[in-house]
Design brief:
Length: about 140
Amino acid sequence: QVPLVESGGGSVQAGGSLTLSCSSSEGWIYSGGRCMGWFRQVPNKEREGVAVINAGKFTLYDDSVKGRFTVSRDDVKNTLSLQMNSLQSEDEAMYYCAATQRPCPSFPNMRSFLGRRDLYVPDTWGQGTQVLVSS
């Protein structure tokens, strides 16, 4: 059983919007104030961090999506979301939600999560949802 399940991907024209959701039937993922976020990957490239949100609802974004994407979480409904506006061809990728066992209370922690390094390498992943952007 996959602990995280993404949905909401699809095909959109450049300039359009999509909202991705990540849900879990396993409440433990959303309890304990875990660090959670979104990553994306295109073929033959490394998976890159897009957005991260901590238990206090503080957020951090990759520069490439800042001002266009918004990450949010609902720890009661066990849902993580990514609102994507003004989509560009460069945003086309497989999008994954992820979590790590430890909280990330500070911005340096959150940067480590996005960079998948130090103590904040995500250890729980979904299977991904594809986003296609046509020009």
